[in-house]
Amino acid sequence: MSGGMMTLLVGYAILLWWGPTGAIMALYGRSRQVMRRGYALLSLAMLAALAGVLALRGASSVEGVALAVGCGVVIWGWQTAGYYLGFVTGPAPAPTQLRFPLPLQTRFRIALRASLYHELLVIALGVVLALLSLGAANPFAFWIYLALALMHTSAKLNVFLGVRNFRVELLPSQMHYLGGLLGKGSSNWLFPISLSLAVGAVALLLAYAAQPETPLARQRGLCGGGDGGAGYAGAPLAGVAGAARAVEPDPAPQTRAAATRRRRPRPVRGCPGPGDRDGAPDERTARPMSSLPTLHPLAPSHTAILEHPAAPLVVDVWQARQPAPVPPILLIHGWGGTGSYWAGVAAALSETATVIVPDLPGTGRSQPVRCPQNLFDQVDSLVSLLDQLALAEVQVVGHSMGSAMALLMADSQPARVERLLLTSLSFFVTPLQEQVYWAVMGAFNVMMRFRPGWLANVPGMPEMMGRRYFHRLPDDRTVLKQGWVDYLHLDGGTAAACAHDAPTQAIPAAGARVQVPTLLVACRQTA
Fold first, then answer.
1. Are residues 192 and 298 in the same domain?
2. Which residue, among 72, 49, 50, 68, has the nearest Cα to 59 in the 3D structure?
């Protein structure tokens, strides 16, 4: 084979593997209109590829096999683009009530439902290609499609069971709630099996291609360029490479920081409207929910995953054990915290009342977020929570910035807030206080940029940070560890936006208008 032909075949193989991936990456995160137009062009290419498969049925030449393989890859790339761009996924889950804790089979059922339409499309296209290739001299479009489908399914199963490196925010925004259902670990029991099968498949295919009696066209279809190309055998080989990437150690914090700095900035205030909810998340600070361990031994009755423009809103519901005729109690955590802070309080209050405990968007399990959430966005999320859970009236308990949110919500929804209990609420009453606050904010913005995950395992760090907020450290050091982990995984953009709104005069103004019974609780050293 001439050097020019070898170069052409290798270039063709590279284009096959990276062309569809590059097209998806180019469209991902763009406006909905741009993604629609791009997907329409990919759809035309897919139709042309289907016509090509039909026309190449009898083409057993080297060129015919190469073109058939290309058609199969284009068809696979089209349906994959539909999945990752959010056009073909599965039925929306919200609002969905889930028993807690979730057994493996329940998590699998929810994950399968999330991509049900995509799985059905994969099967339907496979059947179409199988029928087109039935009895054909050139069946390689079907075989390459089948190999890619098997490797993609294997990758999905491994991600579900738990791998080290997977970012749920790479999925469409309507599927981000899966972060709370996926495993997290360096490996899983299926990984060595799937890896061994992929390596074995590559070895068998290359061994068959090396046999002298194997037709030249089939050698090209199996190996692309024959001498080191990337044809049909490249599908499981690509799966091996992807699997190795999924379980390799996480890059150093400095490497991650350098990579995220190259991402384009996103606006701080507000999210796009309901008609444009399928864009990319804020990848600068987002972390998968599966990386957030729950360290408190108490557990709610069940968990609800509610719709929200910024991120799926995860809400723990504690059913009353001996119900009394009182409205449900809504517990709102403060800045940097999560709903887990309220576990002990919720367990006690749920003796006679139903207790609702959300992780606000950008915190805990309610992330990654599409864009940072400010204080007023968080209040809107609480109102949405009341609407989706059909709560006509609630008692509200807030802590710190959660108290400010409670005041703002009571001001905007006076008929739905029966009473307030506000703890550790701060007002800025003098210009000097506000000047000091903004000076501290300068240092805070620097600190929020350095929060590597390994700090969670540094001995003494939870206690050292806890002394800044506790007059006396709690006896249960699990609470400190949980708080430290929550801070490390807090969405940085949301933290900055909420902190920026803390001095707003809307908070004391709302407090002046509140008419419902209100109890203020100020502890020692509360600002």
1. no
2. 68
